[in-house]
Amino acid sequence: MKAKLRARSFGLANGMNIKFNITEKDVVLVFSANHLGTHHAIPPLAGGRHVVGLLSLAFVSEPPLLYSGANPSFTPDELAYQPQATQASVLVVHPDVLLVARSAVRIAKLSEDRIILFDTADMPPTQGVFPTVRGLIDRGSSALPSFREKRLSPSEGKKR
To answer: Which tens digits make up the pLDDT trace of 7-43?
Structure first.
């Protein structure tokens, strides 16, 4: 299980770096209720300690990872404040709240091409224009590493 999580984390990190050029200074905003797919993204977002790399979506970084969670009951106006205040680089969104997220990024004057969707079994085909967490994992897993990993020493893991 640990090896699989690490492989998926690497795939997500590599896919995020390839697609969005995410670095350790970028903020990733998650706008979702609890969802099965969040277990692939949230632990790395929250600072999984196994690897340090360029990507804030999959690795602890220097400075520490910047992650912001948004309440899925926010209105577009309420949500628009958060990416502006945190200067989020990408939004990882559950399809059920995609319309709110799209409205919010327009209000915040951000680009919709920075929205990533959690995968769901009932995702409408019209949402296929947005990259998905699974798609980024697959893309990153099948590509050569686009960043250099740095392993934390045991004492660094306790500080980050």
So the answer is: 888 888 889 889 998 877 788 888 887 655 444 444 4
CA-based Rg of the chain, rounded to a whole angstrom?
15
Please check whether residue 104 is in contact with residue 47, taking contact to mean a CB–CB distance below 8 angstroms: no
In three-state form (DSSP H/G/I as H, E/B as E, the rest C), the secondary structure along the chain is: CHHHHHHHHHHHHHHHHHHHCCCCCCEEEEECCCCCCHHHHHHHHCCCCCCECCCCCCCECCCCCEEEEECCCCCHHHHHHHHHHHCEEEEEECHHHHHHHHHHHHHCCCCHHHEEECCCCCCCHHHHHCCEHHHHHHHHHCCCCCCCCECCCHHHHHHC
Q: Give the closest residue to 143 by CA, choosing from 5, 3, 11.
A: 11
pTM of this prediction? 0.76
From CA 43, how far away is CA 4, in angstroms rounded?
14
111's tokens: 């680009």
Which tokens sit at 51? 């690897």
Which residue's structure tokens are 């045991």?
A: 154
CB-CB contact of 21 with 136 (8 Å): no
